[in-house]
Amino acid sequence: MPSRAHPTDEFEAPLWAQGVHDVAGLDEAGRGAWAGPVVAAAVILRPDALPNGLNDSKQLTPAHRERLYVQLEAVAAGIGIGVVSAEVIDQINILEATRQAMRQALQCLPRQPRFLLLDAVDLPDIAIPQRAIVHGDARSLSIAAASIIAKVYRDRLMTALDAQYPPYGFARHKGYGTAYHRQVLASHGPLPIHRMTFRGVIPQSSFPLLETKG
């Protein structure tokens, strides 16, 4: 079988050639998880300083993602991160929470981008030219960069939560619906950081919510 294609600058290059250098790629991490926040990142790459090995974060090892995260912090023209909690996800649904996280990420950039490239999500209330690209994290360098930033940032948050809630194994599964996560939910019940509207999470009425340690 042919090897999986890597993202390129096919979407950025025409914009850069027109003098539109502040192109922001946006992506999220944790959209399908049962617990923890959804995290979005916005990244403006420099055309003359593109890190080698940028790819969809799901195609990279944790160590490779960490290395690229550090490289991106050093060479990107701008990085913004947005975090929306499980409580808000339950209130407004995961799609709207993802958009909210992306808006936060844009607000955290050091300057306003002139064009947005998004992974299959649009931001209709943002008055910046934009393009939603299906499988954008596997096709666009800017979106791939955002996927790495969002994934590493969220993984670090979930690892920190593992220390607060040791039985739940968040450092192992990062809040996703693994067999272990399902088993611990069945025995211990959900936490305040669980998304109660997600299928697979035990109904809140079955167990008292556990308080954060410390």
UniProtKB/TrEMBL annotation:
It catalyses: Endonucleolytic cleavage to 5'-phosphomonoester. The keyword Transmembrane helix does not apply. Its main location: cytoplasm. Its EC number is 3.1.26.4. It comes from the Bacteria. A divalent metal cation binds at residues 27-28, 119. Keywords: Cytoplasm, Endonuclease, Hydrolase, Manganese, Metal-binding, Nuclease. Residues 21-213 form the RNase H type-2 domain. PROSITE patterns: RNASE_H_2. It is found in: Cytoplasm. NCBIfam families: PRK00015.1-1, PRK00015.1-3. This is Ribonuclease HII.
